[in-house]
Amino acid sequence: MSSVSGLDKRLQEILARPEFLEMRGVAKEVPIFIQTYSPADDDQLRLVVRGVEQHLRKQGLRVKHVDLFELVLQLLEAKGYLDVVLQEEASWSKSDLFDTLQNVAEPTSALVPKLMEELGDAQISLITGSGRVYPFLRTHTILEALQPAMVRHPVVIFFPGEYSQDADGGSYLRLFGTSTASKIENPHYRATNLAYFDIKSS
C-alpha cells in the first residue's frame, strides 16, 4: 500500500482545524511538524500536497507552499550563479558543484532567511523538496538553523524517510530509508511527527 494513501483526507482534516492553526498544545515548542512518506511515493506526495493546498485555500486560509529545490534555484539566480551552473555543470567535478551549491544555500546565512521571507504572513506553510536538495542540503541542518522566534505559524515539512525520537529526547531523521540517521542537535528544536499527531477537542 502507498505510504500516502488517505494522507490527503487526513491532512485536510487536521490542518484546517482551529486547534492546529492556533497551535494549541504546542506550548513553547517550535510549531514545526514532520510528515514522513516513502521515497517511492514522491510523485504521489506532490499531488497530495497540491490538493491539500487547494483545499485549505478554499477554506479561506493563507497557505504557502515552498519547494526547497526551487528555493535553492532562486538563491542561485539571485547571486548570479544559476546560468553558470546550468551551462558549465557538466565540466565541473562533483566536489566543486557540491561546494558551490552548499555555499549558496548555507542554512543559517542564506536559506533559512530566504525561507522565512517566502513564508511571510501565511497561516500555515507546507515545505517539500527535502529529497531533491540532498546531499548538498540536509533537512536536519535547516531545522537546526531555525530559531523559535522565527516560526509564528504551523509549518509542515514533508520528509521522504523516517523521523524518530529516542527515550532521551534526541530527534533523528533518516532519509530514503538509509541505515544512518542524522541527529538534530539544536536543543530548542522540538518537531512533532504528524503521522502520530492527534488534536484533542477542547
Tell me what the structure shows.
The chain has helices at residues 7-15, 18-21, 42-58, 68-78, 82-88, 94-104, 107-119, 139-145; strands at 32-36, 63-67, 124-128, 155-159, 161-165, 171-175, 182-184, 192-193. With 202 residues, the protein is of the alpha/beta class. It has a domain at 7-20 and 28-68 and 120-152 and 159-196. The strands form 2 sheets. A 5-stranded parallel β-sheet has the order 2-3-4-1-8, with helices on both faces. The model has no long low-confidence stretch (mean pLDDT 85).
State mean pLDDT (0 to 100 scale): 85
Q: Are there runs of 5+ residues with pLDDT below 50, and where?
A: none
- The total count of helices amounts to 8
- Counting DSSP E segments of at least 2 residues, the number of strands comes to 8
Silhouette:
globular
Report the portion of residues in β strands: 15-25%
Q: Major sheet: order of its strands?
A: 2-3-4-1-8
Radius of gyration: 17 Å
